[in-house]
Amino acid sequence: MRRLALLLLLLAVLSGCNTLVKTPVVVMKDLSVVSVDPAGAGMEVYLRLKNPNNFDLKLYGYSYDLKVMALPLVKGGAREEINFPANEETDVRIPIRVAYADLLEILKRKPDPDKIPYQLAAGLDLETPLGQMSVPVKHTGTYAIPKQYRPAAIFGKIADFFKF
Predict the structure, then answer these.
(1) How far is 126 from 57, CA to CA, in rounded Å?
(2) Distance CA 39, CA 98 (A)
(3) How much is the pTM?
C-alpha cells in the first residue's frame, strides 16, 4: 500500500512538472533586408524572448515559414545554441535567404512597396531542466521595402552604370 501511495505521489509530481516551466514570451521586433547580391536577398527576423523562469533556458534550434502576400516564400531552420538567462529578455536573430526567382513571383503581383503583407510562423526548440519544449511564434504584419532595394532604384543604378 505504501508503494502504491508513493507511486501515485510521484505521478502527481511528474504530471505537474509542465506547470513548473513557464512558457517564454516571444515578440517579433523586426523583419529587414540586410543584403542583396547576385544570388538573392538576405533577410533577418529579429525576435525578443522573455524567460519568466527562475532558471536558464537554452535554444537548440528553430524553424520558420515565411509567406508574403499569402504565397509561400521561404521555409527553413537551423540548429543554433543560445542561452536565455533566467528572468531576462534576450534578442534572437534568424537569418533568411530568399532567391530572386521567389521574389519575382511576389513582384508579379505588383504589391504596394510600402505595405507588403506577410505571415511568419516559427518554432523555437528549447531545452529546460525538465526536458524539451517548443515555443510557437506567429506574426502577421506588413513590410515596407527600403528605397535602396526597390526595383526602380536597382534598375536605375544599372542604367547609370552603362551610361559611363
Answers:
(1) 7
(2) 8
(3) 0.76
